[in-house]
């Protein structure tokens, strides 16, 4: 059963998904068009096992859905508006200090 998550939970799920570069690449690939796991693995350059784990995370976050297609399963964004959100985030200007890295911020628990 699908339910609509509260706004803060949606943002937290989106943030968790975006916290990994492979998941970011997956979301960007699916923004362009639905795809099959084997094609995604080849395009992104990861093993199918690793890709499967990341797709499971994105499904658990509610950002992608698995669509049966005959004997195969195709993946696509759960909502087309997620593609627009990714475009907005991709082009957003982020204010960072040149001598700071996100890794340092992560160690302090703020990133």
UniProtKB/TrEMBL annotation:
The keyword Transcription regulation applies. Metal-responsive transcriptional repressor for the cmt operon. Binding of cadmium or lead causes the repressor to dissociate from the DNA. Gene3D superfamilies: Winged helix-like DNA-binding domain superfamily/Winged helix DNA-binding domain. Homodimer. SMART domains: HTH_ARSR. GO terms for molecular function: cadmium ion sensor activity; DNA binding; DNA-binding transcription factor activity; lead ion binding. It comes from Embleya scabrispora. SUPFAM superfamilies: Winged helix' DNA-binding domain. It comes from the Bacteria. This is HTH-type transcriptional regulator CmtR. One of its GO terms (biological process) is response to cadmium ion. PROSITE patterns: HTH_ARSR_2 (PS50987). Keywords: Cadmium, DNA-binding, Metal-binding, Transcription, Transcription regulation. Residues 3-100 form the HTH arsR-type domain.
């Amino acid at each position: 059963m699908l339910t609509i998550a509260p706004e803060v939970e949606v943002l937290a799920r989106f943030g968790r998904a975006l916290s990994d570069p492979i998941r970011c690449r997956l979301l960007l690939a699916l923004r362009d068009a639905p795809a099959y796991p084997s094609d995604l693995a080849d395009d992104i350059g990861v093993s199918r096992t690793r890709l499967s784990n990341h797709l499971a995370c994105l499904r658990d976050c509610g950002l992608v859905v698995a669509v049966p297609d005959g004997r195969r399963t195709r993946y696509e964004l759960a909502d087309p508006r997620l593609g627009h959100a990714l475009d907005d985030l991709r082009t957003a200007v982020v204010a960072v200090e040149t001598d700071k890295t996100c890794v340092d911020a992560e160690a302090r628990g703020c990133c």
